[in-house]
Specification:
Layout lengths: L6 H18 L3 H7 L5 H8 L18 H14 L1 H21 L2 H13 L4 E4 L15 E5 L6 E12 L6 E7 L9 E7 L5 E5 L11 E12 L3 E2 L5 H37 L1 E2 L2 E2 L4 H29 L5 H26 L10 H9 L8 H13 L5
Parallel strand pairs: 1-4
Antiparallel strand pairs: 2-3, 3-7, 4-5, 5-8, 6-7, 9-10
Helix pairs in contact: 1-4, 4-5, 4-7, 4-8, 5-6, 5-7, 7-8, 7-9, 7-10, 8-9, 9-10, 9-11
Length: 387
């Protein structure tokens, strides 16, 4: 097994690192305080091809493999998880899903705009009453009209939607049939300026404050039949396939958080003196640093394994759950350990580690909580579903 990066992968990582050090890290604290990253960052991400990674070039994508995608995502996560999340959702959950499930017209309509950053996508699965139990969602799409005027009228609500107030298109999941549970769900691509769709930004989040998280309300939203992504009744499969790859992206972002925690903690431990010596000389501080370092390496290797499986066309969903579970818990641990190294200074936002901990905390919740990842892994081990 060769863990050496190819020339292309190393170049993608270098490009992302330079971009993050120049365009993201210097602004991350201010964006966090302002509860808004600079919207201009989307165009810059698009110009570098970071919003089109793994999407075929014929649709405006920048091609590349999933390891390059993971490397870029890690760097973005190192800089600011609020920015990383924009990419993970608009590219990872929306554009990549259109590339996999869309017909030619849908690909031509949305992919060039999403990969260039001209448009932003959001992913509307969670509802106020259904989070982990997404298969029981209640947003309803009812058939309306006939012939060329045939379409659907959609009513319902979506909760915690990343990019919600910024997005130009929502990949929305709604119940189209009478079948219970996940069998009656279909996926739709809906422009967010469609009449009847309203959005409200959610404020007061613990972390990811620069990111536009929103509630969506749908009242009599009329869409043409051509808005359906994938076959009718297959929406849950569309959602789960998106989330399986999405979990790799979250895991990579978590590696970035843990790496940022390590860099900050090592730097501070070398400068801060107590008891007449840099705190890096004290063995219990070295223990904190080494715990973070092991978490970084283990999370990164689990993430790279998923990327390798995807690129080789092998099954990867269980491994993606393992990577997401471990990396998200590791990011929380790493940021918390880094805060400990900073002592009281870690607790004020003049230093970066408090934000890392706040941003890391949501990673064990979204795209499937840690408990849900364990159920996915348990099902793969036993063949018995706990859902
Ligand atoms: C900042 C943020 C951004 C988000 N972005 C998006 C987005 O872009 N699109 C989107 O669709 N959603 C998004 N979400 C929603 C996210 O995916 C859900 O919050 C998550 O799936 C959990 O759902 P819930 O919050 O309803 O918790 P619940 O499902 O109510 O879970 C509550 C607790 O019960 C546990 N639990 C539930 N069922 C079981 C079980 N069977 N066994 C054991 N434990 C269980 C959970 O692990 C959790 O600890 C986002 C959330 C946040 C906070």
């Amino acid at each position: 097994m060769n863990l050496e990066l190819s020339a292309e992968q190393a170049a993608a990582r270098r490009l992302a690192k330079d971009f993050v050090d120049r365009e993201i890290t210097p602004h991350a604290a201010a964006w966090d305080r302002a509860e808004r990253v600079d919207p201009g960052i989307v165009g810059k991400l698009g110009a570098l091809g970071f919003l089109g990674l793994t999407v075929p070039e014929e649709y405006g994508g920048s091609g590349g493999d999933h390891l390059s995608y993971a490397l870029v995502t890690e760097e973005l996560g190192r800089g600011d998880s609020a920015v990383r999340g924009i990419v993970s959702v608009s590219l990872g959950l929306v554009a990549k899903t259109i590339a996999s499930w869309g017909d030619e017209e849908q690909k031509r309509a949305w992919l060039p705009r999403l990969t260039s950053g001209e448009a932003v996508g959001c992913f509307g699965l969670t509802e106020p009453g259904t989070g982990s139990d997404a298969g029981n969602l209640t947003t309803r799409a009812v058939r309306d009209g006939s012939g060329s005027g045939a379409g659907y009228v959609i009513d319902g609500a979506k909760m915690f939607i990343t990019n919600g107030t910024w997005a130009d298109v929502v990949l929305l999941f709604a119940r189209t049939g009478g079948a219970p549970g996940h069998k009656g769900i279909s996926a739709f691509l809906i422009p967010t300026d469609t009449p009847g769709l309203t959005r409200r930004e959610i404020h007061g989040k613990l972390g990811l404050r620069g990111q536009a998280t929103a509630e969506l309300a749908l009242e009599g939203v009329r869409v043409p039949a051509s808005a359906m992504l994938g076959p009718e009744g297959k929406g849950f499969s569309v959602a789960m396939s998106a989330l399986a790859k999405g979990r790799m992206s979250v895991a990579a972002g978590c590696v970035g958080i843990a790496q940022a925690a390590l860099d900050a903690a090592v730097g501070y431990a070398g400068e801060r003196e107590q008891f007449g010596a840099p705190i890096a000389r004290h063995q219990l501080v070295q223990e904190l640093l080494s715990d973070i370092a092991v978490d970084v390496d283990a999370a990164r290797l689990l993430t790279w394994r998923v990327a390798d499986l995807v690129d080789r066309g092998e099954p990867f969903a269980t491994e993606a759950s393992k990577a997401k579970l471990f990396a998200s818990e590791a990011a929380v641990r790493a940021a918390n350990n880094a805060l400990q190294v900073f002592g009281g200074y870690g607790y004020i936002d003049e230093y970066p580690v408090g934000k890392l901990l706040r941003d890391a905390r949501v990673m064990t919740l979204y795209e499937g909580t840690s408990q849900i990842q364990k159920l996915v892994i348990g099902r793969a081990l036993t063949g018995v579903s706990a859902f």
